[in-house]
Amino acid sequence: MNKPTVKKVVLAYSGGLDTSVILKWLEDEYQCEVVTFTADLGQGEEVEPAREKAKQYGIKEIYIEDLREEFVRDFVFPMFRANTIYEGEYLLGTSIARPLIAKRLVEIAAETGADAIAHGATGKGNDQVRFELGAYALNPDIKVIAPWREWDLNSRASLMTYAEKAGISVEQKRGSKSPYSMDANLLHISYEGDILEDPWNEAEDDMWRWSVSPEQAPDEAQYIVLSYEQGDVVAIDGEAMSPATVLETLNKLGGKHGIGRSDIVENRFVGMKSRGCYETPGGTILLKGHRAMESLTLDREAAHLKDEMMPRYATLVYNGYWWSPERRMIQKLIDESQKTVNGEVRLKLYKGNVIVVGRRSETDSLFDESIATFEDDAGAYDQKDAEGFIKLNALRLRIAGKKKK
Predict the structure, then answer these.
(1) CA-based nearest residue to 225, from 128, 377, 359, 403
(2) pTM of whole model > 0.85?
(3) Could you read off the pLDDT of 318-370 as tens digits, one per residue?
(4) Is the same domain home to 161 and 199?
(5) Which residues pair with residue 359 across a beta bridge?
(6) Where in the sequence numbering do the catalytic residues fall?
(7) Do 133 and 252 lie in a common domain?
(8) Which residues contact 393 (CB under 8 A, 6 or more apart)?
(9) What's 254's domain CATH number?
(10) pLDDT tens for residues 240-252?
(11) Residues 104 and 138 both lie in one domain
């Protein structure tokens, strides 16, 4: 297939070996100008060094952006309003970051007059799909370059050789080096590769970065109170916080108590099964707290409808359809349901567990103690009404039972 003509490309750039090689490769193969874009999504690593590296390689237009607040406010929080979880276990930490990166790549391309974007995702994974579906949804005419699907640099040794020939500086770190492929942002950190490629192997305890093991967590439980407004946490223990600060704080609290570790074999969109380990301490707390808040303030059928839609919503996010019309439609329904999800939830954090111990809402609680009580309800509920209710609901079952006789 002939290469498209590209004058300028915006590259999602980390400053590491892979994307530095991609930067030079794009210049060599496409004879084009490269713009670099580095996003701070709360991965816990300094992003400014990417600026100096890009300058060393002669890049004139360099974008370094702190997107932490936008990431949590416009992507993580909307997703958690739906109680989203993929295949019963995965809290979608990597998946939800990709549409924001795709959005900025396309926006920067428009700002700089670039006609293409490029990413470092491999041809085996989900991220290539997520980046590109997002890019095409936001700019149908954008050109996308995915070097891992084009070049023959299919090993770290070949990348090192290319880097050496191209004069790309490669940091040689001494001491122990993580053997895992990792991705981190404010919502989670993921681990794949090395011994994890055998799903029978237990993850090494020193692999985990954000959390202690439940066995090593404090012996004393910690209580916290989450304050909700329209489904989003706005304060912790009465202290108002921005979305990113909420998640940062919950990550620290959850990690301290051994919360949020998971070991999953998941079904990738591209067709293969993949084993990965994840740390999502703050997200685990958010999910538990949000469901508790909804249990008090959300109508039964509205809550059940949300639960029915959630797996579809989760699959859309996982497969890269964040910008699709169906995800947007579902989001509007979800957000409408959250208007009454206001109040407070009290949680106990203890050795890997998030335990709901209280919930209250002064304005939107649907819990009526006078009806629910086991004591005298002073006529608030006529128990005789239940007989007709049961008989009506049993009618079809009784008719079918008689036919069987």
Answers:
(1) 359
(2) yes
(3) 999 999 999 999 999 999 999 999 999 999 999 999 999 999 999 999 998 87
(4) no
(5) 345
(6) 18, 98, 127, 181
(7) no
(8) none
(9) 3.90.1260.10
(10) 999 999 999 999 9
(11) yes
How far is it, in rounded angstroms, from Cα 402 to Cα 392?
Answer: 16
Alpha carbon of 55 to those of 36, 58, 393: distances in Å? 10, 5, 72
Tokens 């799903």 belong to residue: 199
Residues 205 and 115 in one domain: no
By DSSP bridging, strand 33-40 and strand 62-66 are parallel
Domain residues for 155? 8-75+87-166
Chain CA centroid to CA 228, Å = 20
> Greatest CA span in the chain, whole angstroms?
86
Q: Based on the domain organization, do 92 and 129 belong to the same domain?
A: yes
As for how many domains the chain has, the answer is 3
| The pair of three-digit structure tokens given for residue 141, joined into one six-digit string | 């005419």
Interhelix angle 127-138/300-319, rounded to 10 degrees, is 100
DSSP state of 352: T
Residue 194: C-alpha distances to residues 86, 159, 238, 382 (Å): 24, 19, 43, 64
Co-location of 96 and 192 in the same domain: no
The contacts of residue 133 (CB under 8 Å, 6+ apart) are 102, 319, 320, 321, 323, 324
Which candidate, 41, 98, 102, places its Cα nearest to that of 69? Answer: 41
